[in-house]
Amino acid sequence: MKIAPNTQRGFSLITVAILLPAIIAGTGISVDLGRIYVTKTELQQYADAAAIAAAFELDGTSAGITDAYNKALVGPGTTATRNRWNFDTSNVTLGAVQFAQLPVGPWFANPLTAANYRFVRVVATANIPIYFLRILPGTDSTRTVDATAIAGQGLENQLGPGMAPFSPDAQNPTDPNFGYSIGEEYTLKWAPDGLRQPPKRCAGDRTFLPGGGGSDRGYIDVGQGSGQSGLYDAIVNGGYHLATPLVIGSPVQHVGGNKHVQPAMTMRYQQDTDPYSMTQATYFGNGRRMMVVPVNNGLASGLVVGFGLFLITEDSCDTSNVKPCCGVYLSNSPVLYSDKKGAGSGGLYRVKLFF
């Protein structure tokens, strides 16, 4: 039996009328779910950036905890440029900013002591209105969306990129600070052999002799080779790295020859936005005056015993190239790509996401 065309059209209209509410509901639910997903993504990006920015501020002091909290509060920018959600129209609400000594906690908003607190947990939240999902029983008119990020200073046992081509000699290889005093100047590059008598010495090395003899000039190969241009580029740009990173116990490869590093050191000094500060507590520059270097055992063997953070000054190296290059010792717990020391008791740290 053949159905008349008019009957077919009537059946289609009835079918559409029955299915239309379900189609609209499904479309609406997809819109709500999509908004939840987009909000979650925006909040996660903020939490990740805020946690990383905050982790750089931790330096083992109560001031560092405060700075980290404030950095998380506004994100990696300032209050005027802080990250937002809802397509950059609404400020992010922080559900929590907490600190821990381990990436798994326990977490505290206000630690009793700041020592060894190297990790930050940031929780970002947002309440979004629900329009279509409310047709489902028990669904509220708003939905709270949150994102959590944990960042911190991870202890590293090796140094590849970011290393300056110097290796100071430890005065006491077994001392956590290598026998150095914080705030004192030590030798990054020794004067030529025979020209090392006072006053041609860095202040902290007045009574110390390196163990490497005339070949121990302080230059080391971090991938740049032995040429003058490569050495300049390694100091200014830090773009070289060794195929096998240095670890505790690695031999450092000294570079022979009377290379002239004063122009490179001066260039790096002049690129800093704070040319005046002489201590880490007062320094507010962009990090160009800071150098992370492997410290060797002070013997002819030249084995790495740790990593140190040094500050270069306007007259770290003189133009004659017959005097040493000096650096102010700041810390035995440097944080890579940072102008602050680490919050740990010693070692080399790298800020990264843990969750």
Strand order of the largest sheet: 3-4-5-12
Reported for the largest beta sheet, the result is: 4 strands, antiparallel
Q: Which spans of ≥5 residues are poorly predicted at pLDDT below 50? A: none
- Beta-strand portion reads 15-25%
Can you give the helix content as a percent range?
A: 10-25%
Rg (CA only): 29 Å
Count the beta strands. 12
List the helices and strands in order: HHEEEEEEEHEHEEEE
Please state the average pLDDT score: 83
Query: What sort of overall outline do the alpha carbons produce when their principal axes are compared?
Result: elongated
What's the number of structural domains? Answer: 2
Enumerate how many helices there are, as a single number.
Answer: 4
Structural class, by secondary structure, is alpha+beta
Distance between the termini: 67 Å
Word description of this protein:
This protein is an alpha+beta fold and 355 residues long. It has two domains: 150 residues, no CATH class; 199 residues, no CATH class. It is built from four helices and twelve strands; from the N terminus they run ααβββββββαβαββββ. It has a four-stranded antiparallel beta sheet with strand order 3-4-5-12. The protein has a four-stranded antiparallel beta sheet with strand order 7-11-10-9, with no helix packed on it. The chain has a two-stranded antiparallel ribbon with strand order 1-2. Helix 1 packs antiparallel against helix 2 and helix 3 runs parallel beside helix 4. The model has no long low-confidence stretch (mean pLDDT 83).
